[in-house]
Amino acid sequence: MYRTVSRLLIFVVLPIAMQARALADQPVVEAVFSPQQLVEKLRQGGYTLYFRHAATDHMNDDHHPVDLEDCSTQRNLASEGRADARAIGESIARLGIRIGDVQTSPYCRCRDTAQLAFGRHQPNESLYYAVTAGPEERKKISDALRAMLATTPEAGMNNVIVSHTANLREASGIWPKPEGVAWVLQADGQGGFRALGKVEPDEWAELH
Q1: Angle between helices 108-118 and 79-94 (to 10 degrees)
Q2: Angle (nearest 5°) at CA 60 between 129 and 77
């Protein structure tokens, strides 16, 4: 069960030199493949799909404190986001992309995105919304996400992570926009990973 989380919203602005040094240690997008090329790779398995949660209702933001057991205290999926999540899942199944582990942030918008798209999910507190965490916890969250992205999925399968914008930005330097976008990443076998490209939510239906 999830505990009620009481945290202050902390914005951390790194000095330019520190930020440049941190980003130097993060993976670079070596080649941005087209969505269709990404589908062909995903059919073979061996990748991680990092989804930002689907479209949300920005008229109702997260409460402070937020109760992870109570979706009414959180910014939740809009009707558009729920429809997008279902459509993404249907397209992935139609395209013959096999899905292994599905891990999510404990926030309802991430859990609902995964459940609507894949029919299952495993909440992981290491995918907690990084922007609301303090510096030490943000580092732990980023390290945990990097470890997940550096893990090779079971043969023929692709793992899914559904989380937030800030988490992937902190871990890799990539801003996953818009809501519902999926970035495809591949473990490099040496404890790191590389980003191959992205599929936006309205692109899945056009792929074959």
Answers
A1: 40
A2: 65
